[in-house]
Amino acid sequence: MNLLPLEKITSAGSTFLIWHFLTLFISGTGVLMGGLLRRGNPHVRSTLLRITLLLALFVPLICVTWNWLPHISLMPKQSIADNSPAIPREGKSSDLPSINWNDVAVWHPVVADLRKFQGQMTANPGSELAPTQIIYAVFLGLSFLISLSLFGRLTASIFSSESLRRRGKAASTSEQARCGVIATAMGVSHPQVLLVNQLESPLVLGLLKSVILLPASMEIGADVYRHELTHVKRRDLWWHLLARLATILLPLQPGFWFLKKALEQADEDVCDDMVLVHGSNRSSYAKLLLNLAESYTPTQGLCLPMAAFGSQLERRLHRVLDTARLPSSRISLSSLGLSLAPLFVVGILLGFIYIDAAAPLHGADATPNQSGTITGRVVSERTGKPLANVLVRAGLGADLDMRFVRGMGTPLYETRTNEQGEYNLTIPLSQEKTPSVIKLDAMTPGYRSSAGVMGTGGDFASVTLIPRGTGSYNFKLKEAIYLKGKIVDEAGIPIVGGHVGGQFKFNDGSSLYVATTKSDQSGQFELFDFPLNKPLLDNVAHNSVGVISVSDKDYCETRTGDIYKLKDTDRTQIRLTLLSGKSLTGNLLDNKGQPAPNVMVEAVPVDVGERKATMTDQNGHFVLKGLATDKNFLVRAHSFTLKEKFKTSVCMNQNYLDQTFKLSPVQISKPPKPIEVLGMKLVDANKEWNDVYDLSPVEAGALILDPGQDSARLNIGTLHEGNLFWLVQDVNYKGTVELKSVKDFVNAILKDIHRNADGSGSCRVVYTFADAEFSGTNTQYIKVTARDIHDLKNLAKQLNL
Q1: Angle between helices 254-277 and 222-234 (to 10 degrees)
Q2: Cβ-proximal residues to 20 (8 Å cutoff; 6+ apart), any chain
Q3: Cα 646 to chain center, whole Å?
Q4: pLDDT 10s digits, 696-744
Q5: How far apart are CA 113 and CA 518, in angstroms?
Q6: What does the mean pLDDT of the chain come to?
């Protein structure tokens, strides 16, 4: 039921146009109904127009600014697996999406759209706007300028009203008393009456404290007081101010201007009827209005003058002299109800139009609470048959790698497939209008998980969702070996959060990553990704063994033998015991004897064995546990920031507690100037850097001195100082470039980048890293925007590439 192609407006980011459309729809309906009631009860017409003003002003504001509308499903829901929202596991409330208040256009929709234009030009420098976008930009700018002009006029009218008040002099006691009697009879608090010279028409001003201003030369009758006191009683001045503010907010919205004029006319008609109801002669009252109009000059102040001129005067005189029409003194609830019915119907229709148009073009229904829905099917790659009870997991974030978020401590959303292999997963999204990238994984015993691609970087199972949108992803899982076990300490107590890694070890000393996970609250773990057959090295399968290694920051590492030699029953009953080992604790000081905070201290075995590392706290204190007994370790620390390092050898035949280590200055013979690339500060790596800072054995490449503030957007993991880019490859594993310098890094990315339709791109990068948990190489797919590519090209010119 797509009655209006609002998805085109939405896709262009035209928040302003959507607001205009919603406002015109509501205000137009109200003005039309008010026109049909022109000869009827003016109380009903005035109330109808006031309700229309509120709806036209605030309903679109809420819908557009907070991207909120009630959920109305236009399609029947399918019964697919668990249809309830998934519950995040092990996640805190702070991990969940929240409103980005910086992106909320609080006072004017122009702000939101100008931000979008700015973002487009920033992301795509040198790009040109389409003709429709240019027209729209002019429309935005014109609206903004007119708004400023109208706001200036409103401010001037407020000062003009105060000037009129100050010019007035208090009326005589008899006039004040006369006004008080009429006010008491009408149930209105007695306003002050002032006489003003050179004033042509009686009027009311004052938002908080009403004042009636009268021409000093005019003979005042009771009709004048009844007319002006009706304005006071009904608070007409407040409503007219609200209508003026609406025209300031959307100055090019004709609906608000028609609504403002209709409301002013309806309020004057109410006041005229109240005068006639109290017995005033129609002819004499009409003559009073005509006399006022002869000498009336429109007042610029924020006030309600009794006089009228032009077509409005003619209309009022016809109403007053129309003896076939009976004046009314109160509102008719039945008439008001009938007149509001069309507004209600229009509101429901508007909801259907907006919701249906905002839904994805492929027609799936929306979901409430700013959520997105992912559906799909899981089948066996070999047989094509559906797989039931498969665990499907999803996580928010383009930089999330589903290979490394298994086990404890990961805020994910989960569901399971039904007998037909189908799943339905609802993901709560933020209320921003930008799409969210959802990473996916599927796993079940006897099959390799979707993210379990051996030895390769990146994770391609993903869906892009917008709030109330839908997406789909179908999985084909390969058959694999399923392993299950438990980790305990020497006392048999389960170890929670222990790191479990599956890998192949080859005779030449190399290894191949298989999978990683963490133990749960009971110390148990699962691995899904070992293939049915061992991988070949030099076409010889027996050159490799499949092992499970288990480690924890407080215990010594241990590992299994070849899992391919285990019986099927033993593969699900693995039990591994971690030894406590020895501890090394102390404080790290800089060269001046002050604590060195946030510096990595690592203990590296001299021969084979497990490396341990940690970061110093704010006081420079560090704790290393689980060091293998009687092994020799190289204990070292380095800081690029301080340009200092420390290194010593320790044999862990006992616990070494409360040690004090001191960093010493280091010197680079010819320190190069860092080059800023994609927000990172890089230098050419060489043997001297390696020796001074105990870096990776890879001696050449682009060394990170500072990862920058926004390196997470590159989607290659968390970068740190000391990481080294040493290889770049295109997405199809072709054109591998081993890097020798920062220039090579820039040149290789521009050469091997795979460009997308929106100007962004990606390519495969490999970098070495060493953090408190792991050390080694990481293979990922770097993602760059069109702006990044533009900057890289400019940098290439500066580097003479």
Answers
A1: 130
A2: 250, 252, 253
A3: 44
A4: 666 788 999 889 988 888 888 888 888 899 888 765 556 677 888 999 9
A5: 45
A6: 78
Query: Which positions ≥6 away from 610 have C-beta within 8 Å?
Result: 551, 556, 557, 626, 628
pLDDT tens per residue, range 331-359: 666 555 665 666 666 655 555 444 444 33
CA distances from residue 752 to 677, 761, 800 in whole angstroms, order as listed = 16, 10, 18
Cα(184)–Cα(189) distance, rounded to whole angstroms? 7
Please report, as a single letter, which amino acid is at residue 584.
Answer: L
Distance CA 321, CA 772 (A): 91
Helix spans in 3-130 (H): 6-11, 15-36, 42-65, 109-123
Question: Which strand (E) or helix (H) includes residue 623?
Answer: strand 621-627
Q: What does the pLDDT read at residue 537? A: 53
For residue 27, pLDDT over 60 is answered with yes
Q: At what angle do helices 333-358 and 42-65 cross, to 10 degrees?
A: 20
Element (H, E) at 678: none
Among 115, 138, 136, 146, CA closest to 18: 136
241: tokens are 């101010």
Which residues neighbour 538 within 8 Å (Cβ) at sequence distance 6 or greater?
none
Percent of residues, the chain, with pLDDT higher than 70: 76
- Return the biggest CA–CA distance within the chain: 117
Residue with tokens 């533009």: 790
Q: What is the pLDDT of residue 538?
A: 52
* 131 against 162, higher pLDDT: 162
Identify which of 86, 16, 34 has the alpha carbon closest to the alpha carbon of residue 261. 34
The type of residue at 361 is L
pLDDT in tens, 491-509: 999 999 899 999 888 877 7
Question: How far is residue 726's CA from residue 202's CA, in Å, rounded to a whole number?
Answer: 85
Q: For tokens 């500066």, what's the residue?
A: 798
Give Cα separations from 187 to 47, 180, 191, 273 (angstroms): 20, 10, 12, 17
CB 579 within 8 A of CB 552: no
Give φ, ψ of 566 to 5 degrees. Answer: -80, 150
Chain-centre distance of CA 325, in angstroms? 57
What pLDDT score does 336 carry? 57
d(CA 370, CA 367): 7
Query: Who contacts 144 (Cβ-Cβ below 8 Å, separation ≥6)?
Result: 108, 110
SS3 403: helix
Sequence-distant (≥ 6) Cβ neighbours of residue 400 within 8 angstroms: 439, 459
Q: Which residues pair with 251 in a beta bridge?
A: none
% of the chain with per-residue pLDDT over 90: 25
Three-state DSSP at 442 gives strand
**What would the pLDDT profile of 784-796 be if each residue is shown by its tens digit?**
999 999 999 999 9
Say if CB 529 and CB 555 are below 8 A apart.
no
* Contact present, 425 and 86 (Cβ < 8 Å): yes
Name the pTM for this structure.
Answer: 0.49
Pairing mode, strands 480-488 and 574-577: parallel
What are the pLDDT digits (tens) for 540-598? 555 788 999 999 989 999 999 999 999 999 999 999 999 999 999 999 999 999 999 99
Cβ atoms of 427 and 372 closer than 8 Å: yes
